[in-house]
Amino acid sequence: MALRDIHLLGSAPLRARSAEVPVVDDLLRQFIDDLFETMDAAEGVGLAANQVGITQRVAVVGVEDDRFAMVNPVIVSAEGRARGEEGCLSIPDLHAEVTRPERIVLEALDREGKPYRRELDGYVARAVQHEIDHLDGILFLDHLSLLKRELLIRRWKKENKGGSLIRKVVPEGKRTR
Ligand code: CO
Prior knowledge:
The protein has 177 residues and is α+β, with helices and mostly antiparallel strands. It has helices spanning 26-41, 122-135, 146-159, and strands at 6-7, 46-48, 58-63, 66-79, 82-86, 96-100, 103-109, 115-121, 166-167.
């Protein structure tokens, strides 16, 4: 397993529509393990492949003990509306309230390539929707009003001083601060 570098706002893969995964093989399983490891090291609750520069429809989610991979995920139905705070490993330290469907039905392939279907609500449903958005080149900021979005992006760019498009993930224990 290996930690992957995370792409930051402004990097092209974040705005790409990712391609369907043709086959779930050992290489993809290794990649999924890398995504989990990188998500954990960065202390996130989800990570999509294009956030590490790979534009394929794969993402991982980890909300408390509920950890799963999604290959070629599709939301087959959605209902209700819920508002909640979101952040993103590709836009560190920026948070905003986002309104999304409250309950969803997810269909995807798991790490073994086996199809599954899950009914989800609450925070994990939010995380799944956030990650599937990534695979379509959509960021949580896109759900905000234009005015709010521009304000937050301007502020974030000012704080992200080096203007770096890549973030090296440093595992816990090796951090200097
Ligand atoms: Co994100």
